[in-house]
Amino acid sequence: MPSYAQEVKNELAHRFDERDCLIAEFVALIRVGAKKIDGRLEFSTSNAAVARRVIKLAKKFFPLIKPEVAAIRRTKLRKNMNYVVRFIAAGELQSFFDALDLDEFLKRTRFKIAYLRGAFLAKGTVNRPEGQYLLEIVATEAEAHFIRKQLDKLDFNGGLYRRKKEFLVWLREADAICDFLGMVGADNAVERFEIARNIKEIRLQVNRVVNMETASLNRAVDIAQGQLADIKILLAAGVAVNKRLQQAIDLRLANPTATVTELAEKIPMTQAGLQYRFKLIHQLAERLGEK
Question: Could you give the CA distance from residue 48 to residue 171 in angstroms, rounded to a whole number?
């Protein structure tokens, strides 16, 4: 079963867009996901749909280049397939990148969005929404700063940190991740994210209520046990008390697990008034204890 990140990429890799936006996406795919090795560009991904996307866009914009693809099975971790797309870096492709003024090219918002989509397809990942909220894009130091700059221009408060030799741009807020996925066009992923987040928040609310009720119950039990202990001291010493305190004592002995509120409703009287009587009983028990 594919991970949530793979599902997002599968959806984005089949997205249709206008030509200039697709160029911006392709530029990001190459800049973020490809390495130059022996005069060739090598793009590596574990997602077959992304590999096909790179080949399709390369052929669309640079018909003279002939991409090669190799599928390599990994020997570590999950041992899934890794797809490597190779093509010669020289010629029209190299000329295009040499002449490209990226800041000028990405002045329009929709091009920035397409670029970020390509960056995510190349080296991005996102946790499943049922778990901890985190979206990351791995890149070189210069490229990571550039990606963060584009996020800032689109009002995303992205973070950046170094992990060994890699640099990662991240989003950690649920709203920001959901907005990012919606912005780049992963509508189905956003729907699943929202459903999972709502279920998660409901569960958290239920847990908070249960924890509060449990804590309240524990406090009530502790209070009742303390009052019973005070009464036991008075009874053992044969201390005579007035009618009001005796009423409180009889009430507690008859209802050893009830809360003070529940006891007050049985008389009836105010909770504060009954609590005061138990306070007087406690003071009597303390004095007896001191003696």
Answer: 25
Structure tokens at 49: 């749909």
CB 144 within 8 A of CB 169: yes
Angle at Cα 175 formed by Cα 172 and Cα 178, nearest 5°? 90
- Alpha-carbon distance of 291 to 282, in angstroms, equals 14
Find out whether the peptide bond into 268 is cis, omega within 30 degrees of 0: yes
pLDDT tens by residue, 212-231: 888 888 888 899 999 999 99
pLDDT digits (tens, 9 = 90+) for 157-209: 989 999 888 899 999 999 999 999 999 999 999 999 999 888 888 988 888 98
Task: Look at phi and psi of residue 77 and say left if phi exceeds 0, alpha if psi is from -120 to 50, else beta.
Answer: left
Q: Measuring CA to CA, which residue among 242, 227, 238, 243 is closest to residue 279?
A: 227
Task: Give the pair of three-digit tokens for residue 78.
Answer: 């999950």
Cβ-contact 273, 264 below 8 angstroms: yes
Q: Work out the pLDDT band at 53, boundaries 50, 70, 90.
A: very high
